[in-house]
Design a protein that fits this description.
Distance between the termini: 45 Å
Structural class: alpha+beta
Strand order of the largest sheet: 1-3-2
CATH topology: Arc Repressor Mutant, subunit A
CATH superfamily: Winged helix-like DNA-binding domain superfamily/Winged helix DNA-binding domain
Number of strands: 3
Radius of gyration: 15 Å
Protein name: Replication initiation protein, RepL2
Shape: globular
Organism: Streptomyces finlayi
Number of domains: 1
Largest sheet: 3 strands, antiparallel
CATH class: Mainly Alpha
Helix content: 40-55%
Number of helices: 5
């Protein structure tokens, strides 16, 4: 992990200061895992929850709260499995490209 990665993780940690411990843990798990080209973490909730000792049910419920609050967003869905990525609220990055008037 390089200094840029550490700085990004610390930024996410600071942004989530007002959240519950479980909510922060879910966001940080998504921030720490490798992503695909779309920014999605291609891991199931059960796989993400296991290393931190959180039950899949609690992880899923907490992730729904975090998604509803705008910290994560659904990126892709394969069959019954949804994959999520950090939203711009989590990263602080402006991912919207301003429109230009056609000439």
């Amino acid at each position: 992990m390089n200094n840029e990665d550490k700085t990004k993780l610390l930024d996410v940690l600071q942004r989530t200061a007002g959240m519950t411990a479980n909510q922060r843990l879910v966001v940080m798990l998504y921030a720490m895992h490798p992503t695909d080209r779309a920014g999605a973490v291609v891991e199931t909730g059960a796989a993400l929850a296991a290393p931190v000792g959180m039950s899949p049910t609690v992880f899923s419920r907490t992730r729904r709260q975090v998604v509803a609050a705008g910290w994560l967003e659904e990126s892709d869905r394969l069959a019954h499995i949804s994959y999520y990525r950090l939203s711009s609220k989590s990263t602080g990055e402006d991912v919207v490209v301003p429109l230009r008037r056609a000439t």
